[in-house]
């Protein structure tokens, strides 16, 4: 037996999770296209200066949104590492 208030909170969390998954899927579609382009152009799979700029940007955004910047950096680092793995596979 669940409490109605808790049920509404959980429904909101479920909706947010769905949105996050859809956004991540869209992001990975774009980064896969970037990976193919890099492979075709002979560009390296990783771009450390871009990665650092993105991490700094995300940390600023996290602070503005009252989200732990350490968490946001770890989350973005996980995504970046996965993208680089995909790019390396495309490179062959």
Automatic annotation (TrEMBL):
Instruction: Give the main EC class.
Output: isomerase
Name of the featured protein: chorismate mutase
What InterPro entries does the record tag this protein with?
Answer: Chorismate_II_sf, Chorismate_mutase-related, CM_bact, CM_dom_sf, CM_II_prokaryot
Q: Which GO terms describe its molecular function?
A: chorismate mutase activity
Q: What is its EC number?
A: 5.4.99.5
Q: Which residues form the Chorismate mutase domain?
A: 1-91
From the UniProt annotation, give the residues forming the signal peptide. Answer: none
Give coiled-coil spans as residue ranges: none
Q: What is the lineage of its organism?
A: Bacteria, Pseudomonadati, Pseudomonadota, Alphaproteobacteria, Sphingomonadales
Pfam annotation, one family: CM_2
Which Gene3D superfamilies does the UniProt record give? Answer: Chorismate mutase
The protein's UniProt keywords, in alphabetical order, are:
Isomerase
Q: Which GO terms describe its biological process?
A: chorismate metabolic process; salicylic acid biosynthetic process
């Amino acid at each position: 037996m669940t409490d109605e208030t808790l049920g509404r909170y959980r429904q909101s969390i479920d909706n947010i999770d769905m949105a996050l998954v859809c956004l991540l899927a869209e992001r990975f579609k774009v980064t896969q296209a970037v990976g193919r382009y890099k492979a075709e152009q002979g560009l390296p799979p990783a771009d450390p200066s871009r990665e650092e700029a993105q991490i700094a940007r995300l940390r600023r955004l996290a602070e503005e949104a009252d989200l732990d910047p350490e968490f946001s950096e770890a989350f973005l680092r996980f995504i970046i590492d996965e993208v680089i793995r995909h790019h390396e596979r495309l490179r062959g």
